[in-house]
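Quick one, T. Sequence first:
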Amino acid sequence: MPGLGASFGRGAATTFQQDLANSDCILIMGSNMAEAHPVGFRWPMKAKEKGATLIHVDPRFTRTSALCDLFVNIRAGSDVAFLGGLVNYVLSNDRWFQEYVLNYTNASTIIQEGFQDTEDLAGLFSGYSGDGQTGKYDAVEGHWGYECRVGGDPAASRQPPRAKMLKGEHGIQGHDLESGTACHSAPRKDMTAAPDGAPPHDPTLQHPRCVFQILKRHFARYTPEVVSQVCGCTPGELVRVAELLCANSGRERTSAIVYALGWTQHTIGVQMIRTAGILQLLLGNMGRPGGGIMAMRGHSTIQGSTDLATLYDVLPGYLPQPAADEQHETLSSYVDHEGLLTGYWTNFPKFIVSQLKAWYGDAATPENDFAFSWLPRVDGDYSQLPYFDRMARGEVTGYFLFGQNPGGGGPNAGLHRAGLRNLDWLVVLDWFEIESAVFWKSDPNAPRPAEIKTEVFFIPAAASPEKEGSLTNTQRMLQWHGKAIDPLGDCRSDAWFVYNLGKRLKQLYAGSTDPRDQPLLHLTWDYDFHERPRLPDGTPSRIEGEPDLEKVLQEINGYRLDEADPRTGRPRLVSGFSELKDDGSTACGCWIYSGVFPEPGRNRARERKLTDNPLQPEWGFAWPDNRRVLYNRASAAPDGRPWSQRKKLVWWDEEVRHWVGLDRPDFETEKPPGYRPPPGATGMAAIAGNRPFILKPDGLGWLYAPGAVKEGPLPTHYEPVESPVGNLLYPKQTCSPTLRTFEGPLNLLAHTPTAEYPVVATTFRLTEHYLSGPMSRFNSWLNELQPEMFVELSPELAAERGIVHGGWLTVESARGRIEARAMVTRRLRPLLTADRIVHQVGLPFHWAFAGEVVGGNANDLTSLVADPNVSMHEAKAFTCQIYAGRLGVRTPTPTKHAAPWPTREPVPDTPAAAQPEGRLGHGK
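Structure tokens:
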């Protein structure tokens, strides 16, 4: 998310899946969309039917590859080098969309004197402190910011930090995932603000310190020949991809990029996504039909979980969780430190005050800083990887776990299970007894159950048809799903569990006068149904205490506290986030969702109306403000007219003096294209009418990100933590200088370059299974389709190691060993990189020791290493060794019997083709 946020202003997919059908070219990279997102893949196929070119760049030839026009095979973890080669090709051959780049990006902005690039410092940026492996950057000290105007004090924005913010330390994400994480300890606005107005620009793009020239110098070494040596592709393949993207971008044509966890799960994953953002800005594809970057999420509402702040250091709507620091001591100092002077984030005070009013109601007043002191302060890193590292060291007492299976699916799952064994108590909510619930008795590599102290409480969870609520999918769309039936027995929804746990805690502490109990006691917690809810068949639900989730959604939407709705007598629901105030008169649980429930009885997430508008604006609700294509002001030229009739989306209507079109304009609707801000303007008044990226303080897409990403303002190729080769581009700086490692006896690493583990491994998912298997491996029908763990490897590697197709093999990493069946296939091939042959293997990550089918766990081989922005692991690129044969040790046995066939008799009144397996009647 910081990769998208740092480039454009929001850390979310910039378009919607159906819009891929409008693309003239689609680059799918870091994704096996046909298998991992098969329903969404219909839209690239629609584009192909209309003549679009589909490209797949991946370590493996997959079903996606088979359906694309061009497949390029690269080494896992080398994506920045490949993308950097595309950027270099566009720049060196003058194939960039000049009018778009000059008006809509910060290409002409001049950077401070004193900034030094990786080209100057052998792979490091200025402002670095550390040993080249686990250090950090301070963007202020490195002079990453915009230059000041002549006449101002050039040193004003280069002063050393006023206070050492805790959030500037590793792993604490600080401001928000959308706008990029702070990598400096001075106020956020210091990086882009000048004392006397906007920073200087050079519209000729000739100034040596303008972004465009810095960008050209930075990527100049990413030639087709060098990229070929790093990635293992041929120079011609890189040029072919570059030519296709260039030929399908511009006024009349647009190209899209699709990625998923194949980019995310790297220590430089943020930089991979940043490079894609740079490429799309140079080609003029952002904010336009058939363009943008489609970030494919892997769960039904993983987008919603981050929107509503399941992360430890982010509040709903990507507001920063306050840190335990003097600059976050009061509401005013917090706003001053985190707020911006220009752009839409100047509304930050409205969002945080409305958030506090939603949580604490009447107890949040101007006199007590709207109860800002009640918000928990971040005093350390509580993200999953360092937290489980501490748990494995015996530093954690108890843990609530639902919606996740770290004992089977966590990176270095063995360390995760060691952490669970150190707890005093563990609460697991799930459908089945997953690895994280039965680790104490079923893990074949664990001590005897009598030696494990953890007391496990297993709470049966309701399944999807047994609960209601909204899901926010990969394209930011909220869709409501209704409850079909009551859950069986004691099963309950996760909402029921959290709501009733909160009620019991409030009851437990009732009457307390201790100051630390007041946030809990004053927390608004009134989501009961007015009357017993009914099921679709009209019968009343038997479940007591289920919360009314439409009440929750109404609070999330927001309402006015100073105005009652005559229809309900309750505070009037706001129509959108533009109504929010910072004076305490509005409450809003998540500002970006505001507008989803604008009036009583109208839950827009429930809407399912198809219209003539191809964007289908009445089907669900997409944040923000039901905009389906973000930054869509860029779909029109600087003068407000569409770049072309073929690619029109929104445009300026001079007659009505409004932005109009197919989509909700992601811009001030009444601001004309010719508007230019007066000197000293602040807020949205400082954003010109030709600046589409309104969440950026300068309204521009950032080719160069001054202080928004912790690895540096520009993407740089670094090798994975584990790689068989060194860094050909920067030999003195092999891996990311800001990565985080958690080395110890449970998390051994084979540092790059490694000879002991010469084979590159990457993990992947199958259509038939889901994540680490907590749902799918308890399903007999899915297990029948994919019954056993296997490893994909090339015929060449198999011949070297004496491995036969279908036989057993052993995979060993520095963390452990697993056995699996061999899938010898030409979908993987040896790559020539840096004058040596590198072999790759692919491991599906769906098996472990619980369920109807069990087997070797790919996650036992991966490591705890983390990028500095979001503590993301690197399961998509690590090293291993491959042997023929089995381990010769105790193997797991199924913990659950397969479901028996209820009957072998044909189903009455059912066509033969719809009969159960084996009852098709041979086509009769």
